[in-house]
Please model this.
Amino acid sequence: MVRINWTYQAKDDLKSIAEYISRDSKQYAKLQVIRLKNRTKILKQHIHSGKIVEEINREDIRELIEGSYRIIYKIVDEKQVDILTVHHSARDLSKKRIE
Model:
């Protein structure tokens, strides 16, 4: 089974998303974070299930979509993926540093 590692950046993104949504609804903010985390569970069985991130165009950098968010991850090896960032699809990804 694959280990899913949430990077500092990705955890910070989740926190920012929750803070922003909670201005209107704390309950919906919590639900959205749960949805985003649950979406990554598919990677435990299928690490290549996400599509290659167009802006980066590398085989090892892929993304899953959950609602309006892009969950960008890196395949470290066959046993680990790193969640690099959670990015709102309406924003310009090129302004964000992804490593």
Remarks:
- The longest strand covers residues 69-77.
